[in-house]
Amino acid sequence: MSFALRKFFAFVKIEHTLFSLPLIYSGVLLGSGGSVPSWDILLLVLAAATGARTIAFALNRIIDRRIDGLNPRTAGRELPSGKMSLTEAIGVLTAGLMLYFGSAYLISSFCLLLSPIPLAVFVLYPTMKRYTPLAHFGVGLGLAMGPLGGWFAVSPSLDNLLAPGLLSFFTLFWVTGFDIIYATLDEEFDRKAALFSFPSRFGRVKALRYSGYLHIVAFVFLVALFFLSPLSLIALPLLAATGFLLYLEQKRAEDVELAFFRINAIAGACVFAMILVGIFV
Predict the structure, then answer these.
(1) Which of 99, 133, 196, 215 would bridge with 246, disulfide CB 3.0–4.6 Å?
(2) How far from 119 is each of 144, 157, 173, CA to CA, in Å?
(3) What does the angle CA 26 – CA 29 – CA 32 come to, to the nearest 5 degrees?
(4) pTM value?
(5) For the CA atoms of 88, 93, 97, 98, what is the dihedral angle to 10 degrees?
(6) 165 closest CA partner among 224, 106, 80
(7) Helix-strand-coil percent breakdown of the chain, rounded to 5?
(8) Of 16-20, 62-66, 129-133, 171-175, where does mean pLDDT reach its minimum?
(9) 47: exposed, middle or buried (C-beta count within 10 Å: 0-12, 13-18, 19+)?
(10) How far apart are CA 57 and CA 55, in angstroms?
(11) Does residue 209 contact residue 198 with C-beta atoms inside 8 Å?
(12) pLDDT of 25-44, one tens digit each?
C-alpha cells in the first residue's frame, strides 16, 4: 500500500466504517421487501457510504485541526502534525463530495434530492462541543441517517418509515452512548480547554452511567424493530446477543479500545445478521 493511500485511510479513519456499513445495509435489507437487492444498488450504496464517511471525517479533521494540535492524544493526526496539508485535506473532502453526490444521482433522483441533509449534520456536529455537551448526539445523528439512506436507496419514498425509523433511533442512541465512552479519553483535556462533553461536564462515572441509560434506550428501539417488523423468530438469539454486547460494552467501558472498537464492531455486525436472518431465513 502506498504512503499516500495509507495517509488517506488514516485521515478518514477507514476502520470506523465497521460501525456504519452494517446499519446502512440493514436499512437496505429492510427496504428490499424480502427480495435480494441488485449488485448495482449494493455497490452504489457502498460508494455513497464511503463518500459520506470521507466527507464527515474530512470536515471533522479540518474544523478541529487547531484543537487537535493542542491535545496530546490527537496532536499526531495528519493535519496538526503536518503529515497532510490543509490543501490536501480539502482535496480529500472534494473527492468525498463528488463520490457521494455522484452515487446519490445514480441511485435515484429522490436520493439526490435528500442528499444535502446529512451534509448539514456533518458540518454542525464538529462545532457542537464548543458550546454544548449534547455534541455526542450530533455524532449519533450523523450515523443514524445511514439506515434511512439504505432504505431510501431501495424504497425511494417517505411511506412506511416505521422499520427504518426504529433502526435509526437505535443507531442514534447506540452511537451517542459509545461516543460518550470514547470521550472519556479526553476528559481532562476537554475540561482544561473549556470544551463540552459528558465526561468533562459530569465526570467520568456519571457520564458512563448516562451512556448506559442511552444503550438501554437503544436496545428498546431494537426490540421494537424486531417485533414490529416481519422478522422471523429464528433471529431472536441475535437480538439477545446484541443486548448482551451492549451490556458487555458498559461493563468494559474502562477499556476504551475493547469497548469502543471491538465490541461495537461485533454489535453492528450482529444487528445486520439479525435483520438478514430475520428476513431471509
Answers:
(1) 215
(2) 13, 20, 20
(3) 150
(4) 0.93
(5) 10
(6) 224
(7) 80, 0, 20
(8) 16-20
(9) middle
(10) 6
(11) no
(12) 999 999 998 888 999 999 99
